[in-house]
Amino acid sequence: MLKLAGQKGYLESGERKLEEGKLKHLESKRFSKVEQGRYDIEDKTMRKLERMGTTGTGQTRPFPEKAEYEPKGRILDPKEAFRVLSWKFHGKGPGKKQAEKHAAKVVKREKLKKMNSMDTPLGTLNKQLKKQEQLQAPYLVLSGRGDGGQPLQKE
């Protein structure tokens, strides 16, 4: 019976025990040998690139200039340009409130550029200058009454 069990592989022989005493199943299947001697980080990166198959010395695509490119929109200041670049890089954008805030700020800035720096939004200075020319005086009476005691008329 023991002979039959040994033939079928149920019993271990004495010789086999000595050979398999190394615990092969615990040995690492994949391992790398660390090179002794000089160890340089550049060598490490080059070996890694060679393993991956890209050493960076292959053909590169030419960079053609954009055809039929027309810049549109407004010129960004450095802070805005960096913010837009950062949004593109990270694949995100501003939130809804932040976008509204930014749009309002841009509209306000454009209004300030269009507005005459010498006058108010209601054009008060122009009205005063016209009235001064009409009265032919180097001054304006702001009391609300004219020379003859009558109120000033709106024109």
Provide a brief overview of the structure:
Helix content is 45%, strand content 0%. With 155 residues, it is an all-alpha fold.
Keywords:
nucleus; 155 residues; U4/U6.U5 tri-snRNP-associated protein 1; 6 helices; single chain; rod-shaped; mainly alpha; SNU66/SART1
Radius of gyration: 43 Å
**What is the mean predicted local confidence, pLDDT?**
78
How many extended strands? 0
Poorly predicted regions? none
First and last CA, distance = 129 Å
Beta-strand content estimate? under 5%
Q: How many alpha or pi helices?
A: 6
Give the biggest sheet.
Answer: none
Helix residue percentage: 40-55%
Which of globular, elongated, flat, extended, rod-shaped describes the shape?
rod-shaped
Q: How do the helices and strands follow one another from N- to C-terminus?
A: HHHHHH
Oligomer: single chain
Q: Name the structural class.
A: mainly alpha
Structure in words:
The chain is 45% helix and 0% strand. The chain has a domain at 77-137. The protein is rod-shaped, with a radius of gyration of 43 Å. The protein is mainly alpha-helical. It is found in: Nucleus. Keywords: Nucleus. Belongs to the SNU66/SART1 family.
